[in-house]
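Example 232.
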Amino acid sequence: MDIHLISPFDKIAKVALSESILNRANKNGYVNYYFYNLYKYADFPHQKIDDSPFGGGFGMILKPEPIFRIIDEIESKYKKQQKYRIVFPTPDGRILNQKISNELSKEEQLIFISGHYKGLDQRVRDELVTDEVSIGDYVLTGGDLPSLVIIDTIVRLIPGVIGKIESAKTDSFSNPLLDYPHYTRPESYRGLKVPDVLTSGHHENIDKWRQKKRLEKTKNRRPDLLEKFKNN
Ligand code: SAM
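Predicted structure in complex with S-adenosylmethionine:
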């Protein structure tokens, strides 16, 4: 998979994607990351990437030209042979969930445009963007962290990226209950003991216990998911 990130502040994503599993996914050839700094595509000599809104009002808007130029460059690189989705993280988009991540993880080419200030010129959204995704009902200063959140959820689903894809399939939302509690060594710590069933070696009982815990937690914290599970 190729992931292209467009931002005025590309260092944020560069740093985040150079650590841990997301970095390993790149080193092991599962994903390529390409970074495009908006300033480099803005008109000389001022390299202005934003401007005030027509009609007045607060805040600055990211100008359309640098973004259109970057998309032209990506398109010419792939000679329009490949289809890609252009994701714009925005508070007024569809709220991110596992289904959206699963769907995006099957794409070959993804482009992320990180908004800043008041947001993007609407023409970019109308003409270029294919997916508008929110990471929740709150507002961040910029789209870099939301882009990274979405990318993280996608890359871990590419087969081979995490040791066993089964592991991702047992995480919260996948089936679609919440995850069960996990324990590791030591078996007893400060008087806190691991539940006996987990050290019993009885796999059927362990599975039953985990499913019971999943159901209990989901019922208490996310009854909406429990309804979905029952209707599955
Ligand atoms: N004027 C925008 C609005 O009210 O919908 C908010 C702009 S926000 C200050 C700047 C940028 O941060 C947005 O363009 C978007 O890329 C990103 N952003 C902020 N909150 C977000 C969220 N909850 N989900 C996804 N992206 C978000």
